[in-house]
């Protein structure tokens, strides 16, 4: 039985502004369609939402250096404001990834309880970014039977494991190149998606574009605000990578994130030692985690090895409500019960690239292609195209050894080699530099103990934007701040900014709170819980 890994939407990460003008010229082809506005109609059948949405396609250049050349289609969705007196513009959304499909996001945010004042003020615009979902999708040809090991590389206990991972990574890169018969992948970059966003703005007839993006969406929002400072209105970047791409530094910060987040779980588990037996003190929980992971490196239990176990724990700490499932996985591994561990892992359902698939999916013998082919393929295309990655195995061996010592919980995974080391094309754009020259219109949101995007990423973004930005730091763990979580201070600060456009006078610290800022009635609470479960958030 092979273990297969999957990618779920949500999480899971260009030109310098001075030369942007030459690169961003609107293409002649498709001008008539753009000036006439979107042709709104029904969304595809697989975009199932509790709130009805409209969808439309937008023609954009495949290659912005050849704007009159090949055009591709990007699909957008709309939940229009029904209050013309309060409407201020459009709020474009991105759920993360890269590779996250976003057509359903306007409806999802509504079901999560986004304030009605925001729904009145904006048309919420969802988008499947280029190459994703219904937007000229790309494929590496991943199959269920292939068992692609995921976008987060496995924990490498020694140098030999890095060499073995390098072989697999090269095979994946070669496979992606072979399947990219239409040449779309090399033009999948964060900068090009930002350029697509500006064409969408034009097509919608708006002078400016407001934005909300989480996780990798923070990188996309940072890129747009940097390339198009005068066209950007109110920019909310949540759970920040600290860059305009999911670059190698951002990937390696997964290790820092788990170190900062793990004490929350260790404290929780220690309080429940009589139930789960993971350790009587937080220190014992940590020691037992390291000892069990090391033991599984040398003596796997069935197909559960040290790398798999570490990834389950990392994924499970995205949200407090998943702690019990993590504890059940761990307890079952302690008992040597692989079946029970896999059943408990099914409950995680978290938006992190590389989470193991369910037992049913692993054993179904489902037909190819993999249902996660496009998400995995687009993740690789954008991640590998945005920046140059080291190409020699020795660099990864050195970094894995260093991070294994600095961040023993997960460092030897996030520093390990990926297909980007062998990607077939060089970046078509230089990395986007965050631009501190422009309007004061960037609100940076971050939990203090986020396992995937640690607070350091927000500090980096805040410093790079300078006086253009303010930072909202929340005393909480987990991934996602605005609406995806429910801290009253963060909710109110962000909503005020979206409504009036004024940044706080200084950076904001939001204390931990057990009080709901959303203040939903019982029916709305059920809808919110169902939506979070559907999203795996």
Could you explain the architecture of this structure?
The protein is of the alpha/beta class and 537 residues long. 41% of the residues lie in helices and 13% in strands. The chain has helices spanning 20-23, 31-36, 105-112, 116-121, 159-179, 190-203, 216-227, 248-270, 273-276, 282-298, 306-316, 323-334, 338-346, 359-363, 373-386, 393-406, 411-414, 455-465, 488-500, 522-535, and strands spanning 5-6, 41-42, 54-61, 71-79, 89-94, 122-127, 209-214, 232-238, 355-356, 442-449, 469-477, 508-510. It has a ten-stranded mixed β-sheet, with helices on both faces. The radius of gyration is 22 Å and the shape is globular.
Break the fold down into its secondary structure elements and pairings.
Layout: E1 5-6, H1 20-23, H2 31-36, E2 41-42, E3 54-61, E4 71-79, E5 89-94, H3 105-112, H4 116-121, E6 122-127, H5 159-179, H6 190-203, E7 209-214, H7 216-227, E8 232-238, H8 248-270, H9 273-276, H10 282-298, H11 306-316, H12 323-334, H13 338-346, E9 355-356, H14 359-363, H15 373-386, H16 393-406, H17 411-414, E10 442-449, H18 455-465, E11 469-477, H19 488-500, E12 508-510, H20 522-535
Parallel strand pairs: 5-6, 5-7, 7-8, 8-10, 10-11, 11-12
Antiparallel strand pairs: 1-9, 2-3, 3-4, 4-6
Radius of gyration: 22 Å
Question: How many angstroms does the end-to-end distance come to?
Answer: 28 Å
**Apparent shape:** globular
Number of helices, where a helix is a run of at least 4 consecutive DSSP H or I residues: 20
User: How would you classify the helix and strand content by structural class?
Assistant: alpha/beta
Provide the helix percentage: 40-55%
How many individual β-strands? 12
What portion of residues belong to β-strands?
A: 5-15%
Spatial arrangement of strands, main beta sheet: 2-3-4-6-5-7-8-10-11-12
What's the mean pLDDT score?
90
Q: What can be said about the biggest beta sheet?
A: 10 strands, mixed
Low-confidence stretches: 1-30, 350-366
């Amino acid at each position: 039985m092979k273990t297969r890994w999957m990618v779920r939407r949500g999480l899971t990460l260009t030109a310098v502004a001075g030369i942007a003008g030459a690169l961003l010229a609107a293409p002649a082809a498709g001008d008539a369609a753009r000036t006439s506005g979107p042709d709104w109609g029904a969304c595809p059948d697989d975009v199932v939402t509790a709130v009805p949405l409209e969808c439309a396609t937008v023609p954009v250049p495949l290659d912005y250096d050849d704007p009159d050349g090949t055009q591709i289609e990007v699909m957008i969705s709309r939940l229009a404001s029904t209050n013309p007196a309060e409407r201020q513009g459009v709020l474009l959304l991105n759920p993360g990834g890269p590779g996250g499909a976003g057509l359903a996001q306007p409806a999802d945010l509504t079901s999560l309880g986004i304030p009605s004042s925001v729904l009145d003020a904006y048309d919420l615009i969802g988008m499947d970014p280029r190459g994703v979902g219904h937007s000229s999708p790309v494929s590496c040809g991943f199959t269920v039977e292939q068992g692609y090991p995921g976008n987060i590389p496995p924990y490498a206990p020694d140098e030999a494991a890095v060499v073995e991972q390098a072989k697999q990574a090269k095979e994946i890169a070669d496979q992606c190149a072979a399947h990219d018969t239409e040449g779309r992948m090399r033009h999948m970059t964060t900068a090009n998606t930002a350029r697509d966003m500006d064409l969408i703005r034009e097509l919608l007839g708006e002078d400016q574009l407001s934005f909300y993006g989480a996780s990798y969406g923070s990188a996309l929002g940072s890129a747009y605000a940097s390339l198009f400072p005068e066209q950007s209105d109110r920019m909310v970047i949540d759970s920040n990578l600290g860059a305009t791409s999911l670059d190698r530094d951002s990937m390696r910060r997964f290790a820092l994130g788990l170190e900062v987040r793990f004490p929350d779980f260790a404290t929780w588990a220690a309080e429940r030692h009589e139930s789960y037996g993971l350790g009587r003190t937080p220190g014992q929980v940590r020691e037992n985690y390291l000892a069990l992971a090391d033991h599984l490196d040398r003596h796997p239990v069935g197909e559960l090895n040290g790398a798999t176990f570490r990834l389950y724990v990392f994924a499970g700490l995205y949200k407090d409500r998943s702690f019990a499932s993590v504890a059940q996985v761990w307890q079952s591994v302690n008992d040597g019960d692989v079946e029970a561990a896999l059943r408990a892992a099914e409950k995680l359902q978290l938006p992190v690239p590389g989470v193991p698939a369910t037992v049913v999916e692993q054993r179904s013998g489902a037909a190819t292609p993999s249902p996660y082919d496009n998400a995995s393929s687009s993740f690789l295309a954008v991640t590998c195209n945005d920046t140059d990655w080291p190409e020699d195995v020795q660099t990864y061996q050195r970094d894995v050894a260093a991070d294994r010592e600095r961040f023993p919980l997960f460092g030897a995974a996030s520093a390990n080699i990926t297909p980007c080391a062998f990607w077939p094309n060089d970046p078509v754009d230089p990395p986007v530099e965050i631009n501190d020259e422009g309007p004061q219109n960037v609100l940076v949101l971050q939990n203090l103990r986020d396992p995937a995007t640690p607070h350091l990423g927000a500090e980096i973004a805040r410093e790079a934007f300078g006086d253009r930005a303010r930072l909202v730091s929340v005393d909480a763990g987990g991934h996602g701040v605005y609406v995806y979580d429910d801290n009253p201070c963060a909710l109110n600060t962000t909503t005020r900014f979206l409504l009036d456009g004024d940044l706080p006078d200084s950076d904001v610290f939001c204390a931990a709170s057990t009080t709901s800022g959303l203040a939903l009635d019982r029916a709305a609470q059920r809808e919110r819980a169902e939506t979070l479960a559907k999203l795996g958030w």
